[in-house]
Amino acid sequence: MISYGGFNEILLDTIPNPIFYKDKNGKYIGCNKAFEDLFGINKKWIVGKTVYDISSLDIANEYYKSDIILFSKGGSHSYEGLVKSNNGGEIRNIIINKSTFYDRDGNIDGIVGVITDITERKKIELELAESEKKCKELSNLLPQTVYEMDSNGIITYLNKSAYEMFGITCEDFNNGIYFKDFIHPNYIDTAVEAFKRILSGGEIIKGKKYLCIKKNIKEFFPALIYSSPIKNNKGDIVGVRGIVVDHTDHETILNDLIETQENFRSLSIQYQFILDSIPDMVWTKDIHNNFTFVNKAMRDVLKKEADEIIGKSIFDITDEVDDNVIDSEILAMNMETCHFIESFKVNGDNIWLDVTKAPIIKDGKLVGTIGTARDITQKIENEKFLESYIAKEVEEWSKEKDIITAKIDKSISKIQSNIQKLKRQ
User: Fold this and answer.
1) pLDDT per residue over 155-174, tens digit each?
2) Residues 189, 141: contact at Cβ < 8 Å?
3) DSSP 305-343
4) Distances from the Cα of 97 to the Cαs of 13, 81, 266, in angstroms?
5) What is the pLDDT of residue 4?
6) DSSP 8-state code for residue 89
7) CA 73, 75, 78, 81 torsion: positive or negative?
8) Residue range 32-51, pLDDT digits in tens
9) 84-98, 144-158, 276-290, 321-335: which has the highest mean pLDDT?
10) In Å, what is the CA distance from 267 to each residue of 230, 257, 259, 271, 273?
């Protein structure tokens, strides 16, 4: 029978987030196993210690300041911080959520805290920020205007060239600009209708001619505007993005831009098209062996659509998998290129593949595997049929051989018998 106190300790230890609690003097009075693992300390050792005993001075100072605020005001406090983990001394990004607890008289008696590791999230945020920075830097190199606007028609992004082309300032942008502010009155109805079509049906508009306004000198200039929908992760249209080309004297530039825009728009589907066009199967998997990409040949063999495969392992989408599949995945995960004959069942049918797999390396670390395969099911079945046919023919020949041998033996025996009779005569 587990005691109430023992149950609480077990409960805390099952929580993956590091948890700690301190008395009103800022000294630790307990923690869970995740906290032990993070700092490489023992529960018994930490009792009576302070944050200065487990963290560097600069980090400990930040935590101590937060504790002082809580002890003076009570309530809760959440903030981001850093911690030096026990795993090779790696600095981890964390969020610490602290709350005060009270004694029976309602006085602050200590602090309980929960730590959430956000290192991976921070890495993703940095990668996204870097990607966004690169996109903005690239767009700022273009002589044409690059823009984005929300579903209300409010401009949310302009590249550097836009400010010169339309004669606006950063202050104008910060005050809010509606896309109609850039369009000559005679073209506003056409522009609004095009905007509505993009939002409602996802139409892509290639090079629509408009007369635009250069705000600072109140002049108009002809322009070609290319527009396409902005979609969120759910596929919902949430705005419009595009390019504006000053068409005053730039027919040559316009033609080049059309080609550039087409190339840019189709870049995301070129690899898919190429890989879907080849007869061999191609796929990639993440570090957990789940598919992240499959081409058409692979989808056809598995008899499933992409959304039925992506995010799942081969074991989730097939009836039966042979040992070679497991072996090859292990070799690929061990940074080795490997070649195997593998088989599995799909809807009860045996599928045989000639497979090559290799690791995907990023910054010296394994991030997944890539594989190619050729369907050799017919070849294997032909070989099995041939083996069976040859075995059957050998068996028939063996039977005929036995019959012939028996006839020869019978004839020899008869001849020998006749010779004996002649001798006796």
Assistant:
1) 999 998 889 889 888 888 88
2) no
3) -HHHHTT--HHHHSSEE-HHHHHHHHHHHTT--EEEEEE
4) 18, 11, 46
5) 45
6) T
7) positive
8) 998 988 888 888 898 999 98
9) 144-158
10) 16, 15, 12, 8, 10
